């Protein structure tokens, strides 16, 4: 029997019907116990028929159905004696420890638990979405006891641990919850070693779970508000002139890579084009319909997936396209929007450009000195360019293309979408196939704009120039997932583009979002 249900007695606590997979090494079971009790595997003493259970083999006394297993170990922090030596100053620490102190404010690293860099990099990048963290703090702990709920709760706890900063730690509980909800991430290769997985599949599946459980106060999925792009596909038959439209919601923009693709924006345009065969009512037969998808409402965050992997039949692997595809620190979605949404974005974009021009002029005057500043006090007192920060209130209002205010005092302003986005996270891959190699996260810190590379447990400060070098063209790390955050503009209250027309009419599309996200989860990164 590969799987049995056992009872675990830990002190005064008893856990009933704990599923135990005999095909997995005992360390996996100990990780389950860690998720239940908080006792780390290295501090567990598991008694099985009077014998101490090892990490790598079950031994002769195999567990049986309904057996009671004794667990000993404390979930509390191990007491540490007061230091007997004189205090050690930072300057006296080894360079490696000094580096850890320097990066502690950026969060914590995550230990690799055996080909789990795909998971570590995905979650470090997802952690960069501050509104998602806030929503998980409010709703994540009460997500329920089913596999989806446990994964959501584990995500919430993982984010809390990352926020605390400090030394790297092993994300046992999250890994077990991920594999329980999505068994494909428990796939094993030769020798029983867990296989490398696709980071994009991890991202999409975790988002799918969060979408199901984490709702805003109005009942709308937080994932929809933060990442959902409302779309309209328009296809036309060249033979008959027939045309039809199809509304939907997407959570990722695909960057298709062709021989002529020279930039991310070109790849997005290719990914939005579509050619489909369907029955023509006028022709009475199947005909080719061609067209493209336009965005009808923009979210606060946009995820771009570089379609670098394709399935090779000869070796049954997801091979990698190494072509260099440059990307920018800013992504402009304007050209991919519908005509009506473009009209809604025009005024905020003009306000954003005007604010940028004023800020540039103010910097020039500041360099010239006080005399020049006094000569043009208006320019010198100009406000800085609009912030790119997005909170949940902005997210709730951003679906129609801009946040709105029906009324307000004279001179008051409100935030509006511009269609422009700034890069805040990158998941990169180094290697020749999706199921091998190494994944790393690069995250822009909201506090000071510093870029930090999260390579499992190691944190390294990087520059913008180094981030832009992740465009591919060789065997170095290259961008696979790009996370962009909306740049908002200050516009007069009541004068921003409203939520009427196309954006409001598409509101019901959120009901169809589960199917759209499930399709993306199944598609993964295998198609180019």
TrEMBL record:
Residues 503-528 have a biased composition (Low complexity). It catalyses: Thiol-dependent hydrolysis of ester, thioester, amide, peptide and isopeptide bonds formed by the C-terminal Gly of ubiquitin (a 76-residue protein attached to proteins as an intracellular targeting signal). InterPro entries: Papain-like_cys_pep_sf, Peptidase_C19_UCH, Ubiquitin-like_dom, Ubiquitin-like_domsf, Ubiquitin_CS, UBP14-like, USP, USP_CS. The keyword Protease applies. Its EC number is 3.4.19.12. Gene3D superfamilies: Cysteine proteinases, Phosphatidylinositol 3-kinase Catalytic Subunit, Chain A, domain 1. GO terms for molecular function: cysteine-type deubiquitinase activity; proteasome binding. Residues 108-487 form the USP domain. PROSITE patterns: UBIQUITIN_1 (PS00299), UBIQUITIN_2 (PS50053), USP_1 (PS00972), USP_2 (PS00973), USP_3 (PS50235). It comes from the Eukaryota. The keyword Protease applies. Residues 498-528 are annotated as: Disordered. Keywords: Hydrolase, Protease, Thiol protease, Ubl conjugation pathway. Residues 4-57 form the Ubiquitin-like domain. It holds the Pfam family ubiquitin. GO terms for biological process: proteasome-mediated ubiquitin-dependent protein catabolic process; protein deubiquitination; regulation of proteasomal protein catabolic process. PANTHER family: UBIQUITIN CARBOXYL-TERMINAL HYDROLASE (PTHR43982), UBIQUITIN CARBOXYL-TERMINAL HYDROLASE 14 (PTHR43982:SF1). Belongs to the peptidase C19 family. Recognizes and hydrolyzes the peptide bond at the C-terminal Gly of ubiquitin. Involved in the processing of poly-ubiquitin precursors as well as that of ubiquitinated proteins. This is Ubiquitin carboxyl-terminal hydrolase. The lineage of its organism: Eukaryota, Viridiplantae, Chlorophyta, core chlorophytes, Chlorophyceae.
